[in-house]
Amino acid sequence: MNLEASGRSIVDDNLYMVLATADADGRPWASPVYFASEDYTELYWVSSPEVTHSRNLAARSELSIVVFDSQTPISTGQAVYMSAVAGRVTGAELERGIAIFSRRALAHGGREWTVADVSEPAPLRLYRATVSAHFMLDKSGEGPRYDHRTPVQLTRAG
Question: CATH no. for residue 72?
Answer without folding.
Answer: 2.30.110.10
